[in-house]
Amino acid sequence: MRRNVLPGLRLSLGVTLFYVGLIVVLPLAALVFKAASLGPEDYWRIISSSRALASYRVTVLSALGATVFNLFFGLALAWVLTRYRFPGWRIVDAMVDLPFALPTAVAGIALTALFTTNGWFGSILADLGIKVAYTPLGIMIAMCFTSLPFIVRTVQPVLEDLDPALEEAAQSLGGSDWEIFRKVILPLLTPALLAGVSLSFARSLGEFGAIIFIAGNQPMSTEITALLVFIRLEEYDYQAAAAIASVLLIAAFVMLALTNWMQSRALRYTVKG
Amino acid sequence: MSATRTGRKPPRVGDQPLFRRMLIGIVLVIVALLIVAPLVVIGVQAFSKGWAVYRDTIIHPDTLHAIRLTVFAAIVAVPVNTAFGVAAAWSITKFDFWGRRFLLVVIEIPFSVSPIVAGVAYLFVYGLQGVFGPTLDEYGIKILFAIPGIILASMFVTAPFVARELIPLMQAQGRDLEEAATSLGASGWRTFFSVTLPNIKWALLYGVVLCNARVMGEFGAVSVVSGNIRGQTNTLPLHIELLYHDYQAAGAFAAASILALIAVFTIIAKVALERQGAGRVRRPALVANPAEKTS
Questions:
Q1: Does A247 touch chain B (CB under 8 A)?
Q2: Does residue A250 fall inside a structural domain?
Q3: pTM for the full model?
Q4: Would you say domain B50-287 falls under CATH 3.40.50.800?
Q5: Which residue of B has its CA nearest to A72?
Q6: Using one digit for the tens of pLDDT, what is the confidence trace for A230-253?
Q7: Are A204 and A140 in contact (CB under 8 A)?
Q8: Does A64 touch chain B (CB under 8 A)?
Q9: What ipTM was estimated for this complex?
């Protein structure tokens, strides 16, 4: 290895490790420590209580629903933004980031206003017999909103870099558009899609601000796990809060590992020698 | 090549006019319903009780206090995270050391962790039932349910923002320029300010803008550690929740309109910075350095 002549390793690495240690690692370690202090039996009892299980179910199912919606809509949006030019496409492209830029609490009250039974959309849906606000459907819509940019923004660059020659070759071999999309384009997009899906799903599992306004927050039916943690805190039941929060933390770590694994796989196929 | 070019490109997959128009139509309708409508409804609701109610909400002392606290949190948290981001990017991209990749993953953790989990985690460090809480209490230092707690929680949530923009870019730029500068006798700081910084300024600003938006809008983590004391520890997002649950919907939306405006400005700044080339080198480089041999 080449001898490094640049200065500043000690200072920059020192600052980095100190900050990461103090701001990121210490609090999470304290949380794990608190949850671990419970003992396996109490821990299991808390995290497998029927109310906690119901909260996992509604969180995971809504997150799955939102992610599947975003998979299709995000892909369509990324496709439209890279392949087609129409008046105002730049504005639409910029708007994709709104869910990231808009504070979650603001998104939460705005979506609730739209979907309550006297809101713009809620009143129309109510006539059709569909209730969104204060039901799991509302949770799903809030998750769709907050996690939409992930899939668009991971797929878009790959779609932009796609070599037109591949399509031309497939076309010259007589492939129909649908065949070419399915057999040539989609396999090239898959790693990016999967990475976007795991980011989107992880975000939905932990989302709080956008959801609590629209969710109704009824135990056993529309109470998400993050809210259950919050409620346990308000009841001064710190151990239960720690235990349930640790479940969310473990889920986050699993998703983080999965995302990193997928992205390093994606890289293997996209990096040119 | 140019001889055969007639100005008409061959049709690509999905270029049939009917399909194209339908897909654009469907996508635009969903964008209008899912993204534009929430933004519009904020404005409509904010002024639903008229301009006077809007103005009264904004100039109410509690709202003004919430705005001041939100701005203060950003003034502290954003520069600190910027300095951290630069330090992290410098150490990770300019040097090889053991555990570099692991450090990258650790820096990214706040992105995947629920803000509520972040808030709870801080409770177990600085709260009375936490590690340091009792000691701090003895000395009368209050971190939780006070402004320091709000700032710390915001720092956790936004810790990776600047680093994430800088690391892939600086990795792609390599070390040659800096090495040339130091070999010509420039000091470390001089090298950074006159060689590295000009190359990363737009990406740096990009990270700062996104970091700022998130600090000002953070809700979950802050709501755990703030204690929600009206006029004392309420940030703007918390103030919105408070007004909303007080059945002052118009007031809540009036306060929300300020944050929505900040979000719109953030997006405009983001687009402007992307024109300068920021935000181009994307995340995958963070995960693994393709040029690096796996040992």
A1: no
A2: yes
A3: 0.91
A4: no
A5: B27
A6: 999 989 999 999 999 999 999 999
A7: no
A8: no
A9: 0.91
